[in-house]
Design goal:
56 residues; mainly beta; 5 strands; globular
């Protein structure tokens, strides 16, 4: 599936809240920070493709 574009809206401990930017949606996706690139911080734009997140 994918690719999908996200922005990190909030970091809450070991989890990050992601919001899709390629469609209009108010839903957040809760993802474990261990699955995200090390340099991920609030406001980081991410691309999800083939099960991997990469920084845009």
């Amino acid at each position: 599936m994918g690719p999908f574009e996200y922005i990190v809206t909030r970091i809450d401990g070991d989890y990050a809240h992601l919001k899709r930017t390629d469609i209009d949606s108010d839903d957040d996706l809760l993802v474990a920070r261990a699955l995200l690139p090390f340099e991920t911080d609030e406001g980081t734009r991410l691309l999800y493709e083939c099960g991997l997140y990469t920084v845009l």
